[in-house]
Amino acid sequence: MLKLFNTLTRKIADFEPINDKKVGIYSCGPTVYWNQHIGHMYAYVQWDVLVRLLKVDGFDVKWVMNITDVGHMTGDNEGDADTGEDKMEKGAKREGLSVWEIAEKYMKQFISSMDLLNIQKPDILCKATDHINEIIELIKKIENRGFTYKTKTGLVFDTGKFPEYADFSKLNLEKQSAGARVEVDPEKKKPWDFLLWVTNQPEHIMLWDSPWGKGFPGWHIECTAMSTKYLGEKFDIHTGGREHIPVHHTNEIAQAFGAYGTQTANYWLHNDWLVIDGQKMSKSLGNNVLVTDLQEKGFDPLALRYLILTSHYRQGINFTWESLEGAQSALDNLRAEIRAWDQPKIGCAEFEQRFFEAANDDLSLPKALAIMWEMVKSDLPSENKSATILEMDKILGLKLDEFLGKKIEVPEEVKKLIEERETVRKAGDFKKSDELRHEIEKLGFEIEDTASGSKIKYMSSRT
Question: Is the pLDDT at 183 greater than 70, yes or no?
Answer without folding.
Answer: no
